[in-house]
């Protein structure tokens, strides 16, 4: 039996969580799902699993990784799960790492496929997406996370049944807990949901230089992203960063402007269906992986594209 941790937002399972269900299907057997906290009951209604377990407790109103690990381990033991699978997000990976310590088992992160057997045969992403590793997992209970946007999500569907329970949460499990959140600027399209993302890198030159990036993103109904070099320079907030240590995105088209294309950055954007790169350096790493490339100054290219879009719409 498999147990899948499903994260949810606004009463719906996240896309990466549905990808975790796809990975779990490769293990065979019956699949149970765990959803935690407020909104879990609403999200459970569209999760296709034999049983969806909804953990409700006042202490779970805010993310607490040790509490999540405690609930996850307790339920895995209760139902006799031989494998626990989770989305490869920051929160889920944090909880899974703590669960691995509690269970004394290894954690295989960023998996893209799994083949049944003893040991399990895994394919997983390493080094920011630049390497595929074939590994064999020797464990009493397999603990896996799925690499975001590396496998197709399962289609939403009704569960076989939904069971709500109140777990026991120890005070020690609440020592690390989210106390506050910094809300992103109101309005616009989020990086996670955007079909078009226009990102600026060090080549933009300054915070003021992002005006042309924002203009194009606005005309395309997209979101604005940036590279780590930009956030380190203080030009944009970390919430805008695309990359291994930022947001992992999967737009229809990714427009990278003045971005060199370091491995860590590409790790966050590899889920894009198409990549368009604008760079003055034809030898920049991103140019070799782009579906379309424009060699030129972004401060000339982007305004020209924006002007043409306005002309055609006018």
Brief overview:
This protein is α/β, with parallel strands linked by helices and 314 residues long. It is 28% helix and 26% strand. It has two domains: 2-174, Rossmann fold (3-Layer(aba) Sandwich), CATH 3.40.50; 196-313, 3-Layer(aba) Sandwich (Rossmann fold).
* CATH architecture term of the largest domain: 3-Layer(aba) Sandwich
In percent, how helical is the residue content?
25-40%
Largest sheet: 9 strands, mixed
Give the overall silhouette: elongated
- In CATH, the homologous superfamily of the largest domain goes by the name HUPs
How are the strands of the largest sheet arranged? 9-8-7-10-6-1-4-5-11
Q: Structural class, from secondary structure content?
A: alpha/beta
Query: How many β-strand stretches?
Result: 16
Secondary structure tally, helices: 9
Please name the CATH topology of the largest domain: Rossmann fold
CATH class group of the largest domain: Alpha Beta
Portion in strands: 25-35%
Mean pLDDT: 93
Which segments are poorly predicted (pLDDT under 50) over 5 or more consecutive residues? none
Please trace the helix and strand order, writing H or E for each element. Answer: EEEHEHEHEHEEEEEEHEHEHEHEH
